[in-house]
Amino acid sequence: MRWASPFKLKQAGILGMNCRNVDFIGRYNLRRFYPLVDDKLKTKLLAEEYGVATPALISVVRTQHEISHVEERLMQLQSFAIKPSRGSGGKGIMVITGRRDEFFVKSSGVEISLEDIKRHLTNTLAGLYSLRGNPDVAIIEDLIEFDDTFEGYSYEGVPDIRIIVFRGYPVMAMLRLATHKSDGKANLHQGAVGVGLDIATGKSLKAVQFAVPIETHPDTGKRLIDLEIPDWENMLLLASRCYEMSNLGYIGTDIVLDKSKGAQLLELNARPGLSIQVANGRGLLPRLRHIESIRKPHRTAEARVAYAIETFSATGL
Predict the structure, then answer these.
(1) What is the pTM of this model?
(2) How crowded is residue 42: how many other Cβ atoms within 10 Å of its Cβ?
(3) Domain 57-141 listed as CATH 3.30.1490
C-alpha cells in the first residue's frame, strides 16, 4: 500500500481528524446537544416528535425485571431488531429475520432460542455494548425490509446510507453494504463495503473494502458501479431536516430504504468518521469550506437540498 504525503492529502482537500474535531465538531456541535444523538432512544423519540420517519418502536427494556415481561411480546413477532440505546460501531445489535418453530433466525441464518435473546438483553442492560461500559437500555424495533433495489448488493444485512450534513446541507454520501466479513453489519471497519454516491443523483461513483478499490461485492459478485439510489432527493431532504431536529451543525445521518415505508432514519452521529472520503475518492474539506462561505444560509431543507444538488455534483466541488 502506498502512503500519500501530507501535501498531497491537503491538495486533494482531505479532511483530517484534527481539523474535523476542532473546526467542525468543536465549533458547530454544542456539547449539550450530544445526548440527543448519543442515545438512540432519545434520537428515536425526537424524530417522532419532528415527524422524521424512523423504524417503529416495539418495546424498551430498562431493567432486568422487564425482560420477563417482554418474552410474550417477542414470541408473537416474526422479525425485529434489538439495539443498545448507547451502543457504538454496530456493537450489540441483534437482527432477527424470521422464525423456525420456537427458534428465532438471525440475519446470518443462525438459529437462537428465547433464552439466548434474554441473555443478550441482560448483557445490553449491563453495558456490555455501550459507550464506556455504562449501564444501558435495550430498544426493540421493527425490522427494516430493504428495498428490492439492493437485491444482491448486501450480504446477510440491511444496507444503509450515510449522509454527512453540515449546517443543514447534505455534502457527501455513501452506501454501506454488509458482507460475510462484517458479520452482516454495515460497518466499514469490520469489512463492509463503502460505495461513494454522487450527491446530485444518488448514483455510485466508486466502491472500497478496507480502503481498497473493488468493482464487485465480495460475496455476491454483484457489480457495484451500476447502483442508483431511488427517491434520492427525498432521502437528502430527510437528512437535511435532521439539522433542525438535532441542533447540531456537523452530523452523520444513517438512513435505510424500506420496501414499503421509504426512507427511514436509523440514527445520528455527532462525530462521523472520515472514511466516506475514501469511498467517494475526494475530500470533504472544500465542500465544508464552501458552505461556511455562504453569507445567507438557506432556511428550508428543500432549499438547502436544491443548492447541494446543484453545487456538489460529481463534476463539482
Answers:
(1) 0.91
(2) 14
(3) yes
